[in-house]
Amino acid sequence: REREREMRGGGGGLGRGGGRGSRLLNPRAIATTPARKSFLPAIAASSSSRRDSDASLCSSRPSSSSLAHAAQGPPVSDRSYQSAALRSVNAYLASISTAALKPPLPSARDITKAFDDVLSRLGWPIPVGIASALDDDLPSILAMLGCPVKLSKSALKAPGTPHAWPPLLAALHWLVQLARYTGHRASSPPFAGVNDVLLFHFQSFALFMEGDDNAVEALDREQLRQTEEQVANLVAAVEFLEKEAAELEKRAEAVRSGPSPREAAEKERALLKDDIKKFDVMIESWKETLASTERVLREKEESMEAKLRANQRISEENDELRKRIASQAVNVRDAERMKKELQAMHRDVAEAEIGRNALEENLWELDADIDRKLKELEPLVEQTNHAIRKLKLGCDFQYVLNAKGSSSAEVLGTSYKTMLKPALNELAEETKKSYVAKLEEKIALQQQSREKSIQLEERKEQLVAFQKKIDEAEAQSIVIKKEVDDHASKRAAEGERMLNDLEKREHEIVIMKEEAEKFLKDSEQILQDAITENDEEIQMCAGELVAIIDSVSEYKEYMESLISGMQVELSKTAQAVAESHKTFLFAMLSSAGLNTSLSGSKRAHPS
Hints:
Layout: H1 2-9, H2 20-24, H3 27-30, H4 34-39, H5 41-59, H6 79-95, H7 108-121, H8 134-145, H9 153-157, H10 165-187, H11 191-194, H12 196-210, H13 213-257, H14 261-327, H15 332-391, H16 408-412, H17 415-418, H18 420-604
């Protein structure tokens, strides 16, 4: 910073009063984007003039400031350029869903519409073909955008004519290129926005070059605060991830410590076998209940059939009696007798109706009992089917109740005998085989256990013998231990002495290390100061070099302009001298001719 203050106070071409050096190293010139240069032609011309003047020192070319007004536009009269420009314009118009321009000469309406669409993509608020005429707004727009193509008023008044179309096409092509570049810049993120650290360095360097120390310190504090916030957020994220990793580790440990899939499957298989046994017992009880219900139902049906036969027989007897009565002559006594018989018959019919009603009530009760039993059987059948599916017997058998069945076989079906029983028998056989295998394994293990117990007894006897030897060895070890303790005490004293020596050496090494670190830090600081000083000197030299280059370029431009002026003056002087010489010669010749004529006349008239 002191070096910077000296450079600002002492001139050197880099401070506030440093003339062109401060203008050349202005940090705002660094942040100028190409998009702004395209919309600000004056700034672009000045920056390009500066670059061209710098390059002219090395390439001995004339400065671009003297050629700023002689910039060449596109070759509008070239047919190949016209065809390429028209293809580019039509491709862009197709990309924005606009009608293309028809070659070789589009209509004035299509040209105006194309200018409107392209300028609307550039953000121009008012279409030139609607709010005003083409020749009123378009020249000012192109001049504001810095277009190198110059349009005449005749071309703007009649855009669809052959002489007006080439410059309009060149201007439209230039606007299309500008629109494409602007769209690309708008779609692509800025470089400085991606890297906050780079933006911080740019801003810090800009403030440093302006000499605003307070702003630099404030920017450093703000950047430090943002960095600390980012570090805190990252630390919180790392802690959260560590907690999540610990939870996942606990879950993994719980999974590893839990039962294995085979043990869980064996446990589930044992539970399923118990369920099978329970379901077999339930099925047997259901079969017995169905059998008793079928017996009661069969008895009721038999009694009902007997009642129906008796009723039919009585009806037949009544019909026969009616026929006999109709065929016989009836007197009063027979009528009375028949009346009494008829009353007795009515009493029998009433008693039969009462019996039939009782039978119907019994039948209804029996139907209600059957429905209730069927409803009780449905959840049991569902449980049985679920258990069969869990057993995975390899068959697709399912119990299906038949409410219209008259026997247990018809209600439950007989397919279980051909499908379910073989599968259950196979499962039972497998269970028996596994049980036999387990039993054989158990017997083998028992045999091994007996052998191990015999070996254990032998080992115990060997251990007793070993214990005696161990006691003897312990007695010897006590004696040896005493000797070892004496030897260890001596070695401990020597070790303490060596440890003290080692600590002294370590202390000396620490002191030497601190001195070396201090020396290293001092050397690094000296190196950093030297690097900073060299950088500042390099920056100062660079500024002086740029100032010299600018002054040389300006002087060169001045000399070129002076030489050109002198050449003009020289040419004028030479022309004036030539004219005066011609006049003098003419005068001399004319005077010589006059003298000759006079001498001739004198000779002719000697008097």
